[in-house]
Amino acid sequence: MSEGSGSWGSQLRKGVLELAVLGLLAGEPRYGSSLVDDLAGRPGLAITAGTVYPLLARLAKAGSVTTTWRESPVGPPRKYYALTDSGRRRLDVMSQEFDTVAAALAGILKGES
Fold first, then answer.
1. Which runs of consecutive H residues, i.e. helices, occur in the chain?
2. pLDDT value at position 5?
3. Fold annotation for 5-109
4. pTM confidence score
């Protein structure tokens, strides 16, 4: 690994974090630390809570997610995040854009013209 590639990897993760979080929320509502733990368990997507929570706040402000408080069986209530219809549309658009970019990049890296 060359010097500076760690920084590039970090920027790449931050760039796809919104798509990853929206994708995780597509299945069911989740609370913040559950999202952080899920991302931490996936090679290449591990990111800190300090990055995820501001993103969740931005998504809520933009109307892509809603929040509700639920009682927890093992502690204080937890704030759950769920996709809105707008959030689902955003996920669809972002997924299509990501697929297009990934396919183009794969072609370049394989030497296709």
1. 5-27, 32-40, 49-61, 85-109
2. 58
3. Arc Repressor Mutant, subunit A (1.10.10)
4. 0.88
